[in-house]
Amino acid sequence: MDDHAGFRAFARALLEAEGFDVVGEAADGASAVSAAERLNPQIVLLDIVLPDIDGFAVCARLTEGGRDRPAVILTSSRDATVYAGRLDRSAARGFLPKDKLSRTALLALAG
């Protein structure tokens, strides 16, 4: 879930090439919540900076209720230190810089 179409296309191509089944995309927070509820993914790669609802709020919505909720991995082109306190309080499984996206990194965080 990312507001930049170019990054979504890159991430889809990379993840599919590395064996992931990418079931959906969204360009904003509201669409991300809707898509995740409809598609029930195991992992959600979620940009923190979105045009309507930030990634932290989307993460909270996606992870509430506990069981059968996706593993949310937050991502950004900004350094993690910018979000340090919020990342610690988030229900996300972790943070992955956009330039470090890989199968290994994603699976390490998704558990």
Topology:
Layout lengths: L4 H13 L11 H11 L3 E5 L7 H9 L7 E6 L7 H6 L4 E4 L5 H8 L1
Parallel strand pairs: 1-2, 2-3
Helix pairs in contact: 2-3
Outline type: globular
- DSSP strand content: 5-15%
Number of helices: 5
* Secondary-structure element string: HHEHEHEH
Strand order across the largest sheet: 1-2-3
Low-confidence stretches: none
Write down how many β-strands occur, each being a DSSP E stretch of 2 or more residues: 3
Distance between the termini: 19 Å
Q: Biggest β-sheet, characterized? A: 3 strands, parallel
SS-based structural class? alpha/beta
Please state the average pLDDT score: 92
Radius of gyration: 13 Å
- Percentage of residues in helical conformation: 40-55%
Keywords, separated by commas or semicolons:
single chain; 111 residues; alpha/beta; three-stranded parallel sheet; 5 helices; 42% helix; globular
